[in-house]
Automatic annotation (TrEMBL):
Domain P-type ATPase A residue range list: 44-144
Membrane topology type: Multi-pass membrane protein
GO molecular function: P-type calcium transporter activity
Protein name: P-type ATPase A domain-containing protein
Keywords linked to the UniProt accession: Magnesium, Membrane, Transmembrane, Transmembrane helix
One Pfam assignment: E1-E2_ATPase
Lineage, uppermost ranks: Eukaryota, Metazoa, Spiralia, Gnathifera, Rotifera
Keyword Membrane: yes
Coiled-coil ranges (or none): none
The keyword Membrane belongs to this UniProt entry's keyword annotation: yes
SUPFAM superfamilies for the chain: Calcium ATPase, transduction domain A (SSF81653)
Species this chain originates from: Rotaria sordida
Swiss-Prot/TrEMBL GO biological process terms: regulation of cytosolic calcium ion concentration
GO CC annotation terms, alphabetical: endomembrane system; plasma membrane
Localization in the cell: Endomembrane system
Length: 157
């Protein structure tokens, strides 16, 4: 009977551990594929920038502060910046502000453009002022991450 109890204990442990390991393995594979896909998407997104008086098409992840970026209808802004040349720029900032109306931007009165907003009308040039986590979208994501961590810490207590 001692041999049977030992075997039953091992079987119970195996039945509990194996599914957890399988789930963890599939979650790891999924996360790895997701990161790979995200990196491919980031490399595929490109922007025309003016550096040293020449136009270059570069992946948006390589945009730096001080670049002059050409923006046009349909673009999602890759960084925060200011308009330096515009005719009649209209943007959709609903992804950041939840406003449903299109916003008209002017060099003289409202020149600031935020990453993640959509260009709806016109093609213009903007000077990049902040990229990645230093931009408005990055700050919002960082704040949300901090709040989530604080909430998780409160749940554990």
């Amino acid at each position: 009977e001692k041999n049977v109890e030992w075997i039953e204990g091992v079987i119970i442990i195996i039945v509990a551990i194996v599914p957890a390991l399988v789930i963890a393995f599939y979650a790891w594979i999924n996360e790895r594929q997701s990161r790979h896909f995200q990196s491919l998407v980031e490399l595929d997104q490109k922007c025309n920038v003016i550096r040293e008086s020449t136009i270059q098409q570069i992946p948006i992840k390589y945009i730096v502060v001080g670049d002059i970026c050409e923006i046009k209808y349909g673009d999602v802004l890759p960084a925060d910046g200011v308009i330096i040349q515009s005719n009649n720029l209209k943007v959709d900032e609903s992804s950041l502000t939840a406003e449903l109306d299109l916003i008209e931007k002017y060099e003289s009165t409202d020149p600031f453009l935020l990453s993640g907003t959509h260009i709806i009308e016109d093609s213009d040039k903007m000077l990049i002022l902040a990229v990645s986590e230093h931009g408005q979208t990055g700050m919002i994501l960082k704040l949300l991450s901090t709040i989530k961590e604080q909430n998780n810490g409160k749940k554990k207590q």
